[in-house]
Amino acid sequence: MNDIDAPTDHSDLRVMSTDECTGRLATAGIGRVAFVRSGEVVVLPVHHVVHGLDVYFRTSGGSKIEAAADHSQVGFEVDDYDRALLTGWSVSLTGAASLVDEDDLIRELADSDPTPWMVGDPNHSVWVRIRPDQISGRELLPR
Amino acid sequence: MNDIDAPTDHSDLRVMSTDECTGRLATAGIGRVAFVRSGEVVVLPVHHVVHGLDVYFRTSGGSKIEAAADHSQVGFEVDDYDRALLTGWSVSLTGAASLVDEDDLIRELADSDPTPWMVGDPNHSVWVRIRPDQISGRELLPR
Fold first, then answer.
1. Which terminal residue of chain B has fewer beta carbons within 10 Å of its beta carbon, N or C?
2. Chain B contact for A85, CB < 8 A?
């Protein structure tokens, strides 16, 4: 049963507020970035951090993500579902991606992410920034 | 430590075999579909089933996914990560999406998915097929 005041969409999912979306984005840890590479839409998981209003993730220097994501429009998604309870939530955003080249920011990001993972050698990685232009979230409540 | 025989990629992830990829895809239950809509790359979670070599998911009739995914190149991803252990795996594919209009197949798909979720009213939903043209998977082993 939905809360009586909670807005729902055409699939009966509760629509999250923007604050709730950004909160869940910040604590999710794992997200999926989607981008176009050679005319194909590719989705890959990344470990991300949120800094200010932007989403950042590391990728190996010279990776396909690095090449494709720089100055591109990308999608990004985080979620958490319980298959037993058939409940869960997701937050999805679109934004512009760019490589981070500010040394101060790179140090801050590294400090905020003391345990790099999902990237080979952190010393040979680059940070990608996603600046969101749209964000939305949905929650599937218990029926 | 990686198995000595396991191939790894440039990020030190174990490369999965195609059989392993399709096996994990079939049991994952939740995946993320990525597609281009009005020039933006969008990622959304779906509950999927695998039938034959194809991936299928339901979406509400008239949804944005339905409009965007029909006869499009899309991306699809499943994963499972353990943030405490810093381990996990992902499978990513690209393929052509199309709406399912074969009545027999729609019945088979509905039978194979007795508990629809992540879609409002299953009686007003459509099935989308993704026919994979490339599939790959990576596993992050304990360090």
1. N
2. no
pLDDT of residue B5: 55
| Contact between residue A14 and residue A2 where contact means Cβ atoms under 8 Å apart | yes
Contact criterion met (CB < 8 Å) for A41 and B41 = yes
Residue B116 has a pLDDT of 80
Q: Which of A92, A43, A95 has the alpha carbon at shortest distance from A65?
A: A43
Cβ contact A42–B115 (<8 Å) = no
- Cα–Cα distance, B75 to B135 (Å, whole number): 10
Q: Counting every residue, how long is chain B?
A: 143
Burial group, residue A112, by CB count within 10 angstroms (0-12, 13-18, 19+): exposed
Q: B17-140 adopts what CATH topology?
A: Pnp Oxidase; Chain A (2.30.110)
Nearest to A126 by CA among A139, A143, A110: A110
Name residue B91's beta-bridge partners.
Answer: B78, B137
Is the CB of B118 less than 8 angstroms away from the CB of A11? Answer: yes
CA–CA separation, B33 and A71 (whole Å): 22
pLDDT digits (tens, 9 = 90+) for B19-77: 999 999 999 989 999 999 988 999 999 999 999 999 999 998 777 788 777 789 999 99
**Does B51 lie at the interface with A, CB-CB under 8 angstroms?**
no
Cα separation, A136 vs A90, whole angstroms: 8
C-alpha count within 13 angstroms, C-beta hemisphere, residue B12: 16
Q: What is the DSSP letter of B109?
A: H
Q: Report whether A97 contacts A68 (CB < 8 A).
A: no
How many Å apart are CA A141 and CA B79, to the nearest integer?
Answer: 22
Spell out the domain ranges in chain A: 17-140
Residues forming a β-bridge with B48: B57
**pTM for the structure as a whole:** 0.91
